[in-house]
């Protein structure tokens, strides 16, 4: 199943951080978190995990 990315990008093995610290979020997540633009934002206590796509 292909789910379209409406903002940002998908995972890319060319970015080492995509293998351990990146995530794609859903529109439901965005609404629940109250963060209108999750791209490039940190989520989590250690500021190591960031959004790359929506």
How would you describe this structure in keywords?
single chain, 54 residues, alpha+beta, two-stranded parallel sheet, 1 helix, 13% helix
Could you walk me through the main structural features you see in this protein, from its secondary elements to its overall organization?
The protein is an alpha+beta fold and about 55 residues long. About 15% of the residues lie in helices and about 15% in strands. A two-stranded parallel ribbon has the order 1-2. Helix 1 links the parallel strand 1 (about 20-25) and strand 2 (about 50-54). The protein is globular and about 30 Å long.
End-to-end separation: 16 Å
Order of helices and strands: EHE
What percent of residues are in strands? Answer: 5-15%
Strand segment tally = 2
Number of helices: 1
Structural class computed from helices and strand pairing: alpha+beta
Report the principal-axis shape.
Answer: globular
Please give the structural blueprint.
Elements: E1 22-24, H1 27-33, E2 50-53
Parallel strand pairs: 1-2
Summarize the structure.
This protein is an alpha+beta fold. Helices cover 13% and strands 13% of the residues.
């Amino acid at each position: 199943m292909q789910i379209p990315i409406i903002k940002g990008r998908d995972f890319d093995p060319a970015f080492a951080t995509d293998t351990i610290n990146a995530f794609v979020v859903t529109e439901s997540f965005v609404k629940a978190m109250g963060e209108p633009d999750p791209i490039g934002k940190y989520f989590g206590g250690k500021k190591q995990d960031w959004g790359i796509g929506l």
